[in-house]
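Dear all,

This email documents one entry for the complex benchmark we are building for the journal club exercise. For each entry we list the sequence lines for every component of the assembly. Then comes the predicted three-dimensional structure of the complex as a token string, followed by one or two observations. Please use this as the template for your own entries, and keep the labels exactly as they appear.
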Amino acid sequence: AQSVTQLDSQVPVFEEAPVELRCNYSSSVSVYLFWYVQYPNQGLQLLLKYLSGSTLVKGINGFEAEFNKSQTSFHLRKPSVHISDTAEYFCAVSAFSGNTPLVFGKGTRLSVIA
Amino acid sequence: KAGVTQTPRYLIKTRGQQVTLSCSPISGHRSVSWYQQTPGQGLQFLFEYFSETQRNKGNFPGRFSGRQFSNSRSEMNVSTLELGDSALYLCASLREPGLAGDTQYFGPGTRLTVL
């Protein structure tokens, strides 16, 4: 079985400042890793995913994440945030064997302050 | 290409009633998964259907059921509604399970309120 821990439930940050949203996972098998974003009253949108290869993954909207196998982490970063980045961010894993289901963390609410 | 559509977007029911939610996946996608999102429990997997067969099931009571049709559209049903069933129900579509790293695409969700 897999589990995901998002270490911060809320992260306030000033506009144009950098941000890091932390994610740790636990699994007895190899996994794929994902970050999704959810804007108010909307579904989930994929930001980026790690399948294999380079441990630094670039996604949409200027986000990137780094996979660290030894620390079982997949932290999300953005060098300069905008007001429009205010949303809930979810880290998720799925097992190699079948892609589904996704196991999600509890989410991190990013609030960007003008 | 149209995204995942879910109907209805909002629903209000009373305890004891039953409800049916619908999901149409992206054209060409044959796998549909359902997730429940609540403030307390977060996002939890309900079940997955592929080729009209339930492929995976989460840890939910039997009041939660689903099915998939030959055109890949899926419905989920909740019988004997309880207050705790109030949640955002999200549907996700996938081309097919087992494709390495394939992405699940989510619909906008159905917000169910049980009074």
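Observations: The mean pLDDT of chain A is 93. The two ends of chain A are 41 Å apart (CA to CA).
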